[in-house]
Design goal:
Blueprint: H1 2-16, E1 33-35, E2 49-54, E3 57-61, H2 67-80, E4 84-88, H3 94-97, H4 100-106, E5 111-114, H5 117-123, H6 125-139, H7 144-158, E6 167-168, E7 173-177, E8 180-188, E9 194-200, E10 205-213, H8 224-235, E11 241-246, E12 250-251, H9 252-269, H10 275-285, H11 295-310, H12 313-319
Parallel strand pairs: 3-4, 4-5, 5-6, 10-11
Antiparallel strand pairs: 1-2, 2-3, 7-8, 8-9, 9-10, 11-12
Helix pairs in contact: 6-7, 8-9, 9-10, 10-11
The structure holds zinc ion.
C-alpha cells in the first residue's frame, strides 16, 4: 500500500510539477471568473484575465499590465482562500504578461506556462519598443500616463525571469495544471509567433487570448493568415462560451459573427478596395462588438492595421516567420 501511494505521488509530481504537499481542495467552483481588462483612451490596455479554480489552487490566464488589474487578481485569491498555483500566458504581449511579477511576488511557486515565442520577441521586437518608449520620454512629449505605462513595460521586459515560461508548451496537448485538465492549443504565427488558446471541456469554454479581440483585432505582431487559421480551429471546438483577449464573453453565434467580420476585413484588405471601404466594412460588420463612443478610435486603429500590416508585404514577411534581431 505504501509503495502504491509513493508511486501515485511520483506520477503526480512527474505530471504536474506542483508541490505534493499542497493539499487538494475538496470543493471549488469550476466556472471561470473573468477579470475584465480596461482600455481607457489615455492608457495602454490590460488584457482580460480568466481565473480557473483547481484542486491545488488557482490558474490565472493572463495577468494584465497595470497594478490595479493585478490587485483584482490577488483580491480574488484572498477571497476564495486559495493560492495562485499557475499562470498561463496566452501570448507575450505586455498587456497579458506584465503582471506575472506582481503575482509571483506573493505566490513565488506559481509556474508560468506559455510557448517559447517570447524568446524571439526579446531579441528584436521588445527591445525596439523599449527604445521607442525611451525616445518618447526624452522628447518631453509623453503624458504622465504614457510615462507610467512605458516604465511598467520596461520593468516587465527587463524582468525576464517572470516573462519566460517555467513550463514551455511546444505543441497542442491535454495537460493537468494544479490538478485541473485543460486542452492547450498552440496557434503558430497568429497574434504572435506562437499563441496559446485554451479549451476547458468541463465548462465548454474557450479562452482565446488575442486571437479574438472584440473591437478590432490587434495586428501589432500578428500574422493575418495564421490568425485566420486559428479562428477556424477554434470554431471546430464544441464550446458554448468564448472569452476574448479584450471585450465581453461571446456565445458561439456571436463568435461566428465576429469571425465573419474578421474574414471580410482580410478579404477587403487583399482586394483593390479603398482603405476607407475596408474600415467602414469592419465598423459595420463588428458593430455589435464596438463600444458606444469608441467608433472614431477604432476607425483609427483599423486604418493603421489595413495600411501598415494587412497591406504591407514587409509586415507579413516579419510576422509570419520567426522574429529576428533588428
Ligand atoms: Zn491584448
Amino acid at each position: 500500500m505504501i509503495e502504491r501511494t509513493l508511486a501515485a505521488a511520483a506520477v503526480l509530481i512527474a505530471c504536474e510539477g506542483s508541490h505534493p504537499s499542497t493539499p487538494a481542495r475538496s470543493a471549488y467552483d469550476p466556472e471561470p471568473t473573468v477579470i475584465a481588462g480596461a482600455f481607457p483612451p489615455d492608457r495602454s490596455p490590460d488584457g482580460n484575465s480568466v481565473i480557473l479554480q483547481a484542486p491545488r489552487g488557482l490558474i490565472v490566464i493572463d495577468t494584465g499590465r497595470h497594478p490595479a488589474h493585478q490587485d483584482k487578481l490577488l483580491a480574488f485569491a484572498r477571497q476564495v482562500g486559495a493560492p495562485i498555483a499557475a499562470i498561463i500566458n496566452t501570448h507575450w504581449h505586455l498587456d497579458h504578461t506584465g503582471g506575472n511579477a506582481e503575482l509571483r511576488a506573493v505566490y513565488p511557486g506559481a509556474e508560468i506556462i506559455a510557448t517559447r515565442a517570447v524568446d524571439g520577441a526579446l531579441v528584436g521586437f521588445l527591445p525596439k519598443g523599449r527604445a521607442q518608449g525611451q525616445t518618447l520620454i526624452a522628447s518631453g512629449k509623453a503624458t504622465p500616463q504614457q510615462i507610467e505605462d512605458i516604465r511598467l513595460d520596461r520593468a516587465a521586459v527587463d524582468d525576464t525571469r517572470n516573462l519566460l515560461p517555467t513550463r514551455p508548451i511546444a505543441q497542442s496537448d491535454a495537460v493537468y495544471i494544479a490538478g485541473r485538465r485543460l486542452d492547450l492549443h498552440v496557434a503558430p504565427f497568429a497574434a504572435t509567433e506562437a499563441d496559446l488558446w485554451i479549451y476547458d471541456a468541463a465548462t465548454k469554454t474557450v479562452i482565446a487570448g488575442d486571437l479574438v479581440v472584440s473591437e478590432v483585432p490587434f495586428f501589432d505582431s500578428g500574422c493575418p493568415a495564421g490568425l485566420r487559421a486559428a479562428l477556424g480551429e477554434i470554431a471546430a471546438a464544441p464550446f458554448v462560451r468564448l472569452i476574448p483577449g479584450h471585450g465581453e464573453p461571446m456565445t458561439r453565434d456571436a463568435f461566428a459573427r465576429w469571425r465573419a467580420a474578421f474574414d471580410a476585413l482580410l478579404d477587403c484588405a487583399a482586394s483593390p478596395s479603398e482603405v476607407a471601404t475596408c474600415v467602414a466594412g469592419w465598423r459595420t460588420g463588428a458593430a455589435a462588438f464596438i463600444a458606444a463612443g469608441d467608433s472614431a478610435r477604432i476607425d483609427e486603429y483599423t486604418t493603421y492595421y489595413v495600411t501598415e500590416i494587412l497591406r504591407s508585404p514587409a509586415a507579413h514577411e516579419r510576422f509570419c516567420h520567426p522574429l529576428r534581431a533588428e
